[in-house]
Amino acid sequence: MAQDDHKLISTPVSVSDGFKRADSRTWFVLMVAAAAAVGIVVAINFFVDKPKVRWPTSPTQAPPPAAAPASDEPRTYDVAPPSAVPSKD
Fold it and tell me: What is the pTM of this model?
């Protein structure tokens, strides 16, 4: 069945098989296009002015508030100390 398939569209089995099937004109056109693209990028890099980027500064953090004065009200862990909890025996 594979012998009767048309050859209009065929995929190479490996990369080296693909290199063998390609003709020299194709590689010449690809290399010229790649060289032109690299040349354009280098020319843009040299001749186009790049604006100076001014990164925003992060806001300065306020100093932590001073410790609150101690009050007479008990704190949560002072409300029920472990010795006040009845045992489950």
Answer: 0.39
- Cα 76 to Cα 9, 65, 73, 79, 84, distances in angstroms: 78, 21, 9, 5, 14
Look up residue 22 and give its DSSP letter: S
Please provide residue 3's backbone torsions phi and psi, each rounded to the nearest 5 degrees: -70, -25
List pLDDT tens digits, range 45-89.
999 988 888 888 877 777 766 666 666 666 666 566 667 777 776
Q: Distance (Å, rounded) from C-alpha 81 to C-alpha 76?
A: 9
Give, rounded to a whole angstrom, the gap between the first and last alpha carbons of the chain. Answer: 84
Helix (H, G, I), strand (E, B) or coil at 43: helix
Residue 66 dihedral angles phi and psi, to the nearest 5°: -65, 155
